[in-house]
Structures
1.
Amino acid sequence: MRPALTPHAQRFVPGAPDPGAMATATSWTRRFGADNPRVLRYMTFYPWVHPDIVPERQSILAKIYAFYRFYDDFNDSLRSDLGTSRTIAHQMIRILDGEKPSSDAAVLWMFHSLWREHEELCPPEFLARTSSHWRHYFATQSAYHAMSKPEYPWNLADYLSLRIDNGGLHVAVSQGELANTRYVPAHIYRMSSLVTMRRLTYYCVILTNDLYSALRDREVGDHRNPVAQHMRHERVGQEEAFAHFQGLLFDYSDRLHHLPAAVEREMDLLELTPRERSVARAAARNCLNHSDGYEAWASRNEPQLGTPEGDPGIALRPLREAS
């Protein structure tokens, strides 16, 4: 059993990774002891979700997704404790506030390096927005960690709300602006049609991720995915639960691909200039690229990722021991 690709993902054509950018990013991960097979495979993600990436942004996007994988594998592990998860998250937020890490944990210095590069490359408005998204991402990590407890209250609506409020997907989709350097001003970013496109993109990414995660999670007894919870609450088998969420993914994907027409109508109503319309269309493409590209990438790579190996505490090793 494995997820089927939506028609849109079947037609998706990724960009090409630059070998030099990948080498630079790989060397960077090695400084923090993060150059494990899962991280290195996840670095290949960026040309799939950002096929229009400009050459000079390839290395930072590869680093962003490397950090995601390294940090998430630490935080998501059932062997990590909630207190440590919260402590690390608080220190990540202080990095966003301009402080240096108070600990020498490698994962903290990895993000410190990544955020300094953001500050050097990003215009102020984008930096402020992505900083807010990163802040929400870190602030909700302990809540996701707590979901591993069997007594944690769970339903699909609350789960999707938590995953969206988490901020991680907001960061990821908005990275399309960093990738193609088509930065979206606030009055366009908040267009109702684009807000809806982003929400549907988040749903598609969440469901794609969780359909693959459900297959891995079952091996380690992790129920933090909607398939496991649907089985638990609706008293159905895995195949029926899997098919239910596969159907939701196809529905959300179709709805997403009908929304560019709504973007066009809203641009007319707002009387946007030709330049503003071009930016709004780029923002819409960022959503489509992320949904379809992630699904297509996952089909090729998720089955090979496997479950994280080794001690999740590797992310907490002192920096001097990591490299």
2.
Amino acid sequence: MMVVDSGDTVVGNVTGFTFDGSQRVLPAVVLERNGQRVGLLVHPDRFEGSGPSLAYESLDCTGQAWLNGPFVTLILPGTIEGPGQTVYIPDLSATPGLVTAQSLLQMGRCFTFQFDVSPAVPALPLVDLDTVFTPPFRLK
């Protein structure tokens, strides 16, 4: 079983299902791009990430984005933010360290407060989903 978009482009194979809290069941898929496998949830009209929120050292959610890591799994968690539904993944080549963050980007909103991210690795943009897929999404 797989999820496809309105043009029958394959999003990914279904690995399971989850409830989204509104009595809907959402498929979990593995998206493969540029040699990376990323876990995502698929709504009928959009995607939902499986990764943590993006942390920033700036006060306004700009500059280098950071993720709490490291990740040593075959399927990476994907964080989705910004216009184009950009998928961010952890930089697996980076050495994890401590970052004192000043802001957090979550579901398009920037929250300002100071917190430590440890171990932290840089977040890398993988793909803008809106340039590849067109809703609605369905099972096939």
3.
Amino acid sequence: MHAVNGTQRARTHPTGPSPMLDVYIRATQTVEDELDTQLDPVEGQLPTGLRGLLYRNGPGRHEICGHRYGHPFDGDGMILRLELSDTGIHYRNRYVRTRELTEELRAGRPLYRSFGTNLPGGLARNALRLRFKNAANTGVIEFGGKLLALWEGGLPHALDKDTLATLGRYDFQGRLRNTFSPLERMLNTELPFSAHPRICPETGVLYNFGTANGFKPRLMLYQVQPDGRMAAPGHITLKALSFVHDFVLTPNYLVFFLPSVVFDVPRALSGLATPVDTLHGSGKPTRVIAVSRDDFRVVGSWLTEPGFIFHFSNGFQAGDDIVVDGLRLEDLPSAAQVREIIEGRASMYPQPALVRTTLRLGMQQADSEVLFATAGDLPTIDPRQHTRDYRFLWTAAAPSERNDPFQTQILCLDLLGRTEQRRDFGQDIVGEPLFVPDPHNRQEGAGWILMLAYSAALHRSEFYVLDATSLATLARYRLPHHVPPGFHGSFVPVVPAAAPAS
């Protein structure tokens, strides 16, 4: 544990072609089948208190009509549904039938640009194509009676909660329609709704954001009641373009880290390059703002170290201070760096550090402290501790001693004792861990870690239930096919019906 200044960097390691590269290539092969089937246990059995629905989202295909996507974020979203019941696990997977994917499959060729992929055909096919493909591939959440597949650049897609059939784009009764200038509405009729909403554990109210880059960069702010009614969106006009993937909710505030980025808009709009190819960090300090939950008014602004945080684990308030924990990279990875890493050509690769930032209200001061120098990513905590001080954090990580970027370990970080526990899965690539609390034990950390792992030996994926404390396997079920490494999921617990009164 030590304080950091503006020059502190997350740890990096040298690497050459990784032995895991072939595993990753096989893991990202397209899933052709959509299945409904009962899973048989390979090991152990479901804990008695673990009943409910696990939904998970991620790219099911990394190519379209024979053309490989240029970035891992571009793959078409595929939803998994695992129903955990007294009779075992029922598994279902379905692609999100977005308008764009449906049109492309019908045409037999790519029709839309993506975040990191241009259309084949050069400048003539890409110039001034400003409508990008909604991949619907990043998150999935059941809220307000709706099951929504999320992608941060556009509208959610509503799905049938049982069959996973795509019901269509969902704009919260018109609240996500673009009402800015007529020209901006011509560029995009929809407002973006990010894939990282946060739900207040006390009120059940959902908060979210979107970054709308019209003539002025705007941070859109959303509040949705538990019944699904969205209030009129608020917005903050930003001084400069930024790239925001996640945020933090505390009892009184929404906290956003706004990294300074350079975006070559003319090259992107002209089709000379993809948006991600023209986006990179500037190396300048990161602006942090705190926004009131009540009226979306900015109540504080600070500068902190350069860097980029994809995911935050939690945030809380301590007196007049706001405390935020995030998994920070030294910089926003460029598209070229991502390609070098996944193709095994990188000479260095980044390892996120868990950094605690303390923001002092009424002051410009922001203090940062590295809690763990290598901490993995895709964090999960006990949801009962959201917006509160907490002790335990779980992540997916690459083993530092192997010197490659592929996540094959689950970490449990003890923030109080400053200790870590690692569960290694050999060459099996692990996905996001998801903590589910034991309904019969209120102690923080009492519960289970749910996760998927791609088995290199079997070319199949397996579903694991781990004891959250020991990381020991309590149950393991084999899926009938492989599932490419994905992004985010959510769990909907099923509360057993009360026994009738005698």
